[in-house]
From TrEMBL:
PROSITE patterns: CYTOCHROME_P450. Belongs to the cytochrome P450 family. Keywords: Heme, Iron, Metal-binding, Monooxygenase, Oxidoreductase. The keyword Oxidoreductase applies. This is Cytochrome P450. GO terms for molecular function: heme binding; iron ion binding; monooxygenase activity; oxidoreductase activity, acting on paired donors, with incorporation or reduction of molecular oxygen. InterPro entries: Cyt_P450, Cyt_P450_B, Cyt_P450_CS, Cyt_P450_sf. Cytochromes P450 are a group of heme-thiolate monooxygenases. They oxidize a variety of structurally unrelated compounds, including steroids, fatty acids, and xenobiotics. It comes from the Bacteria.
Length: 424
């Protein structure tokens, strides 16, 4: 069966991601009436949509059958796909990072930095991260009682943390932020480099320009860290070898770019969404202040609630079956994390923000061999920020209407105006 045209158009429309009721209505209808079916929106190759939790997990687990690199790993229209093949000489992805490789190459590349992202390895950073959190909290309290929490705190704090972990100097942060937002929000006039609505056929060109800027920057980073290695992720990447050889130019650039971009907009969107939820649920703020052991449930619920990575795509490399439907070799599949995290079969009252859900089953970090490499860092930095901030405020309320980014890939609140009162 084919998904209704109107729904198919909605799930590819970046503007729908800035209008949660519209998006949720579309995915709820899919989960109920067409949980694994084919969408044929105009301008795109047809693709299956996995909207249920169970199907998303199954496809991620069967990584030998459902590959990341065979076609674009993120939703791309036909014009974008043609452009990528033109500039890469036939590949289906503009970059070749961990996300766009499979099998042994993925294992080898992931093993290079995996040890640096374990909870144990990250523990040594706890105090440094807490220092950063304290600076942002002090700054916010000084600016109050009204701030735009998204742009003044949520988007800057994770950036500083990730850049510290990577070894990027503080003065380069605005440049990295700009390029990440251009890469993740090319359809959003506030985010892309033209600062206006651009026609779909131009989106990939803009992303290619952003990529060239990033490559120029990271070329210098490689020289610097090969000459003088340091204890940071970028130095690990610059000096990493598989067998006797350094990474290829494309592998190395992909690695720098995924490490620099995957970690902050995702965490930033989650942090901004969390503050929005706190402003709308004063009982949650009171509970967290009274009982710090509620923090873990809060963090996990904010990640489910925000689901900042809306989807990734997979491609079947052999014929297979999913949810009782036959999938053919070459078929393209959207994994909707946003929808899976609202699956009524797994989450009671999924549209309620509940910090006391018994077991956290969200798939916001994905699953299987590609599961988010930075998940422990994300959890830790968010916990530290709330530990530093919540004891210092008494109440928080919205001081305007929050605004969401227009993006079907990584999106969330770009503006969360709040008014707060200080704790005594
Ligand atoms: C709340 C914050 C975050 C969310 C929701 C998130 C979500 C995700 C998702 C959904 C994936 C794809 C998983 C899959 O295909 O199964 C992913 C991959 C990845 N994430 Fe995160 N992420 C977050 C924070 C971070 C941070 C802080 C970093 C570290 C710098 C990071 C680095 C990565 C990398 C390198 C990958 C690629 C892993 C691979 O393909 O092997 N992420 N993330």
């Amino acid at each position: 069966m084919t998904i209704k045209t109107e729904i198919a158009q909605t799930i590819v429309d970046p503007r729908a991601y800035a209008d949660r009721d519209r998006l949720d209505a579309a995915f709820t209808e899919l989960r109920h009436n067409a949980p694994f079916d084919i969408a044929e929106p105009e301008g795109f190759d047809p693709f299956w949509v996995a909207s249920r939790h169970a199907d998303v997990l199954e496809i991620e687990r069967r990584a030998d059958v459902f590959h990341n690199a065979a076609r674009s790993a993120t939703l791309t229209d036909k014009a974008g796909d043609a452009f990528v093949q033109f500039v890469t000489g036939g590949e289906r992805n503009l970059i070749r990072s961990l996300v766009q490789v499979d099998g042994q190459e993925h294992k080898d590349l992931r093993a290079l930095t995996f040890p640096a992202f374990t909870p144990k390895a990250l523990k040594v950073l706890e105090e440094q991260i807490r220092e950063i959190a304290r600076e942002f909290v002090a700054d916010m309290l000084a600016k109050g009682p009204e701030v735009d929490f998204a742009s003044e705190v949520a988007f800057l704090y994770p950036l500083r943390v990730v850049m510290r972990v990577l070894g990027v100097p503080q003065e380069d942060e605005p440049f990295m932020l700009k390029l990440t937002q251009e890469l993740f929000g090319p359809n959003d006039p506030d985010m892309n480099r033209e600062k206006k609505e651009v026609p779909p056929e131009q989106v990939m060109q803009l992303m290619q320009q952003t990529m060239l800027d990033l490559e120029g920057y990271f070329g210098e980073v490689t020289k610097k860290f090969r000459a003088n290695p340091e204890a940071c992720i970028n130095s690990l990447i610059a000096n990493a070898k598989i067998g006797d050889d350094y990474l290829t130019h494309r592998q190395m650039m992909g690695y720098y770019i995924i490490a620099a971009t995957a970690g902050h907009d995702t965490t930033a969107n989650t942090t901004a969404a969390a503050m929005w939820a706190l402003a709308e649920n004063p009982d949650v703020l009171a509970k967290l202040k009274a009982d710090p052991s509620a923090m873990q449930g809060f963090i996990e619920e904010t990640i489910r609630w925000a689901s900042p990575v809306k989807h990734f795509m997979r491609t079947a490399i052999v014929d297979a079956e999913v949810g009782g439907k036959p999938v053919k070799a070459g078929d393209w599949i959207m994994l909707s994390y946003h929808s899976a995290n609202r699956d009524e079969d797994v989450f009671e009252a999924p549209f309620e923000f509940r910090i006391d859900r018994p077991i956290h089953k969200h798939v916001a970090f994905g699953s299987g061999p590609h599961v988010c490499l930075g998940q422990h860092l994300a959890r830790m930095e968010m916990r530290i920020l709330w530990e530093e901030l919540l004891p210092k405020i008494d109440t928080v309320a919205l001081a305007g209407t929050p605004k969401l980014t227009q993006s079907s890939f990584v999106s969330g609140p770009k503006s969360v105006p709040i008014r707060f009162t200080l704790a005594n």
